[in-house]
Amino acid sequence: MALFERVIPLDGSILGGRDHTMAQRLVAEVDRLPRRSLLALDCTHAQFMDFSYADEVISAAVAALNDSSVTEKFVVLRAASVPVAESIEVALNRRGLACVHVTTGGEVQILGALSPALRETFQQALQLQQISAQDLPGDLSPSTKSNRLRDLESKGLLYRVGIENVDGGGRRFLYEVVR
Fold it and tell me: What is the distance between the alpha carbons of residues 151 and 113, in angstroms, rounded to a whole number?
């Protein structure tokens, strides 16, 4: 099940300073998005982004999604150069946030703060393309498996695509990677 997508280009080869106007614009875009939406920040033309811009603008957009009133809305970075991705990585790490980055070559990466266990689970979701708790290693408890997927969803890295009924009762939630 695809997400509604809104693409916003980050114009300018050098993005710097505390750009309150752009931060407010992105937060407003998040607020306007319908449920089950993706805000894609296109970094194709940005060659450099300083920490202040990454912290003020990118972190603000990602943080807006961590507001408990926001559901099923996601931010993805696309085509960030290595220096831009590094600035964003530092800003997100400092705030305890994470975001998906899709490189120009189509590789999916996580930028920001994420535990090794959640990174491993994210990689499994990426490989399988669609994942449920039952797909995670058998040595984990059922609640640990479900909690990992829910944590990745709450961080805006996975989204729920379906629910299946399980033989004998219960249900299984299916997730895909936000791209």
Answer: 12
Written as six digits, the tokens of 104 are 């120009």
Question: Nearest 5°: phi and psi at 38?
Answer: -125, 125
Read off φ and ψ for residue 91, nearest 5 degrees: -65, -45
Q: Taking the C-alpha atoms of 112, 74, 12 and 83 in order, what is their torsion angle to the nearest 10 degrees?
A: 20
Name the pLDDT band for 70 (thresholds 50, 70, 90).
low
Q: What is the pLDDT of residues 71-99, one digit of tens each?
A: 689 999 999 999 999 999 999 999 999 99
Answer yes or no: pTM beyond 0.85.
yes
Give mean pLDDT, residues 168-177: 91
**Predicted local distance difference test score (pLDDT) of residue 65:** 79
Beta carbons of 46 and 81 less than 8 angstroms apart: yes
Length, in residues, of the chain: 179
Longest dimension (CA), the chain: 57
**Can you read off the two tokens belonging to residue 4?**
């509604």
How, if at all, do strands 73-78 and 48-49 pair?
unpaired
Beta-carbon contacts of residue 104 (< 8 Å; ≥ 6 apart): 44, 79
